[in-house]
Amino acid sequence: MAREHIHVLNALDVAKTQWYHSLQIIIAGMGFFTDAYDLFCISLVTKLLGRIYYHVDGAGKPGTLPPNVSAAVNGVAFCGTLSGQLFFGWLGDKMGRKKVYGMTLMIMVICSIGSGLSFGHSPNSVLATLCFFRFWLGFGIGGDYPLSATIMSEYSNKKTRGSFIAAVFAMQGFGILGGGIFAIIISAAFKARFDAPAYEVDPVGSTVPQADYIWRIIVMVGALPAALTYYWRMKMPETARYTALVAKNAQQAAADMSKVLQVEIQSETNKEEAQGKPSFGLFSKEFLRRHGLHLLGTASTWFLLDIAFYSQNLFQKDIFSAIGWIPPAKTMNALDEVYRIARAQTLIALCSTVPGYWFTVALIDRIGRFAIQLMGFFFMTVFMFALAIPYDHWTHKDNRIGFVVIYSLTFFFANFGPNATTFVVPAEIFPARFRSTCHGISSASGKLGAIVGAFGFLYLAQNKDKSKTDAGYPAGIGVKNSLIVLGVVNILGFCFTFLVPEPNGKSLEEMSGENEEEEPTKEGSYNNNNNNNNRTVPYV
């Protein structure tokens, strides 16, 4: 590695935590706040959409979205996210982190606003418009995953890099919380202004015409936090690691980081190393030898984690009903139902989701990514089996509070565990020229798991008796067997964690092996500069 690289990258590795690091967490974190708000706010309004657009005269219960429409509304953003993770991950390595970072934000702003608009008044046209914009919203959100993680890792110092990246991801918890709180405020305001009877009293009158504004306002407000951070994203310089190691301009990297860190960083030559070509390409034999199992480890653990994590939708309706947070739909009007669903999701986020993320932020640089991920998968396995094996016991009314406690602990250890670490590690262990792409591949694998967890298990968990399944669904294997399958999925996640190395306390170049790579323009000059350190990287 050339001397200029070492100067500027060492300066980043040993830099004290300062205001600029906090600003980066806020800029990247607000993107993740928006991502979570946009992805999860749809679950607050799907019941309302069913009441407004699929009301059946004379039916004993309020209208609900048909299974295929519900799957499309909830799943289309996941498909867009998966596509965006792959595309923008690749583009971030080709064009630079900064240029692509602004694009993803603008897509999110435009599509958040578009989601609340409709071309036509029929159910088909409204839902088609919503699905179209939510796919492209997901596409923009997908780009935020690899870019935010990569940018934060490349700006951070060695000592606190894990907690900085985890803090960006932890803003997801606040996004979910923010969505719930905003939905509570909006629905309460509309309830106060437009009172309506319960569905069982007046089926038509229970859904006031103004209810159609609520879901549009909730989905469109997601544009605000993204728009507010656009200016700051455009002001930030390209990361020094991209400029020095990929664009091969160490002088520019030193100049950028001198301004950012307010420290004088000398660059001794001008783009001398720009003639050199990278020693190996993505998916080459050398890449697969050095990083193949690492990529398999990060992709497989994220895939398996998200199957379990997104299966939580299976049980929320039962849990909320069991503890009396959400009464039967026919006893409420449309606005009351939105209010109660939002309140329930806010309480879950406050008690389980948010604390888990911040435990990770506090401890990731002390006990390491590997230990947190293993511990998380272990406890998720234990609690899934604790729910599954005596499942009949938990169905009795007197025991349901215990079910809720164990359920909450399962997702606490998902967030204080693999849900955070699977985001952090892929941004630390791959070479700079592939870092964004490999993070995109890993996160796209996770979203594939999310699709399996959210929709595969929705069908799988249906009652074995066809007469007892939800409307429109075929018979499944039942909730108990589904929980056992999820427990096995967590065991596999525990096992695949052993493919992932521990980056705690090491520089990005040490982890990725870039210190080892031969500089073609200076044969032998600095090849052995950090070889002793590189031996600590557990290539497999």
From TrEMBL:
CDD domains in alphabetical order: MFS_PhT
Segments crossing the lipid bilayer: 25-49, 69-88, 100-119, 125-143, 164-190, 213-232, 347-364, 370-389, 401-420, 440-461, 482-501
GO CC, any one term: membrane
Tagged with keyword Transmembrane: yes
Pfam family, one: Sugar_tr
Biased composition (Acidic residues): 511-520
Localization (cell): Membrane
InterPro entries: MFS_dom, MFS_sugar_transport-like, MFS_trans_sf, Phos_permease
Domain Major facilitator superfamily (MFS) profile: from-to ranges: 24-505
Membrane topology recorded in Swiss-Prot or TrEMBL: Multi-pass membrane protein
Family under the similarity heading: Belongs to the major facilitator superfamily. Phosphate:H(+) symporter (TC 2.A.1.9) family.
Annotated protein name in UniProt: Phosphate transporter 1
